[in-house]
Amino acid sequence: MSVDPKELAEKDRDALLRWRLALGPTAEKTGACPSLRALSTQAGSVGVGGGDLEALDDALSFVYGEKRASSSGSRPYIPEWLGALRTFFRDDVIALVQKDAIEKKGLTQLLFEPETLPFLDKNVELVTTLVSARGLIPDEAKAIARQIVREVVEELRKKLESSVRTAVFGALRRDRTSPLPIARNIDWKRTIRQNLKGWDAEHKRLVPERFYFWPNQRKHHEWDVTLVVDQSGSMAQSVVYSSVMAAIFASLDVLRTRLILFDTEVVDMTPLLTDPVEVLFTAQLGGGTDINRAVAYAQANHVQRPEKTLFLLITDLYEGGDAEELVARLRQLVDSRAKVLCLLSLSDGGKPTYDHAMAERLTALGIPCFGCTPKRLVDVVERVMRNQDLTPLLTADKETHHG
Questions:
Q1: Is the pTM of this model over 0.90?
Q2: Maximum distance among all alpha carbons in the chain?
Q3: Helices (H), 106-138
Q4: What is the dihedral of CA 362, 364, 369, 370, to 10 degrees?
Q5: First-to-last CA distance in the chain?
Q6: Which of 319, 320, 301, 321 has the alpha carbon at shortest distance from 311?
Q7: Three-class HEC string of 334-361
Q8: Tens of pLDDT along 292-306?
Q9: Better-predicted residue by pLDDT, 190 or 227
Q10: What phi and psi, each to the nearest 5 degrees, are found at residue 389?
Q11: Of the chain's two ends, which shows fewer C-beta atoms within 10 Å, N or C?
């Protein structure tokens, strides 16, 4: 027998409404749960008006639960459904529901329709979906899909490029003196250190005999940066961020940048570095993993001066190839004095899933293994190029330190 909401305290009616929305329309068929109409007076407790409860229920019912059917009994028009999500939920919740719709309800094909794509929230998750299943995109929607990917990639690049340039140029100019006495080029630390004898105790000021300046000119290709990136399905977001970071590195004349993508095959993306969108639409997300084969290729073709090489292996370390040979190759790189790092993921959040046993073996070789955000990678690269210890940086944030 259904409970009469009027006989319940307000907090119990609120709880009952939340349970009804969580369980879906089928809950009413049990006879124990009141209808949405009977609970409409509590709509404010979930942030909507009484007349919007059914629309909210339909939006949720479309995605969640094996046998849930919307209260209207039909499959919603996708743009209208996306519009409803924007009405009821915050951006982060919308992204989650959208992702669940793709995974739980097989909406990939529908989401690629030209009329749907413009309504989607443009984020890294959508980019990975578009790139992963680009073969399903109908011809008339391909241009829109590529434009969406470009917009997201350009936004990421805009957020990261300035900090990368500042970090890299700051690290590489630290030990040289500039012949140009320009105020913005003053090396304050060195100027103070070299002029301590000019301290005026009476007036408490430093009277320098000489100013030291950072150089205004840079050498080409002072460091080689090689990114070897796992493109298996679990690393999809890492491929997106790696492509953007590689493009930024490649734009700096002080770095010589290479990008390798791999699954069981190895693809050298270096010729496409100037256009990360092209890299992403060339990538083959999914499939197996042969890390050893990729490392062997990069070692043979892109490690000419190991002491000036930053070797970024971006993978979850689940090796489908020769694990022993992989460890041996990485040991050779470490012994050659290359700076080798293993990023278990390169993304903006989430705890990476990875092969802990392999991570421990690499850590024993002196190879740090850790999950990393793009912003944290900027700091890591700067420290490597300054020849500084990474330990304080990697232990500062436990959520991004694994291995």
A1: no
A2: 93
A3: 108-111, 124-132
A4: 150
A5: 55
A6: 301
A7: HHCCCEEEEEEEECCCCCCCCCHHHHHH
A8: 999 999 999 999 999
A9: 227
A10: -70, 130
A11: N
